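Do me a favour: review this protein, sequence plus structure tokens, and tell me how the chain folds. Record follows.
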Amino acid sequence: MLKPEIRTQSEPCAKRIPRLDDCGHMSTIVKICGITSPADALAAVEAGADALGLMFYEPSPRNISLKIAAEIARQLPPFIVKVGVFVNAEEETISRAIGECGLNIAQFHGEETPEFCGSFPVMTIKAFRIRDAGSLKDLAEYRTDAWLLDAYAADKLGGTGTKFNWDLAIEAKKLGKPIFLAGGLTPENVAEAVRKVQPYAVDVSSGVESAPGKKDQAKMREFVKAAKSASE
């Protein structure tokens, strides 16, 4: 499981946040992304999710305001990891979201530089859209705490509902970072993905929705059960 660790850049003993470098967990971590309401957040928690993603990107159908995100965060149990998802956002915007929502992790989905990703006092994930083996060449430049691998789509930065060649995720694991596997995962295929790739975590959004931005409680339960069962 995600374990708490005391770590910030400016005050090493000031804040407890989850570790992403513990590969001794008993089952695959499940992150449900694109949460848009307190009701969906609590349903995801009840389903067994370990982490929830809050989207701060206006073009996304799962985008939420800082006010709503903070409301969601306040209602979450302390053991749930809160992940803010950003796409080429301003530093001030990210810092404000971290502070007001108590984010544990910042996830970057745009063209952020390695230096930018490392400038925040929380753990970080860099997302990469994987099209072929050449898509893996930039991973090592990012010394974030984990990498998220998503499917490539020319017109979308995520939430595409399509998967990529999982063999490339296996190659990425050899570089030594915890891998969040995303892209086209569903309750029907996540067990296969976990058995084949053995990622640190799986990340799902559209695969557990009844409509863009609206989570389906039954699908979330089925997804978590399948992911956890396949890795135990």
Observations:
- The longest strand covers residues 123-130.
- The first helix runs from residue 38 to 47.
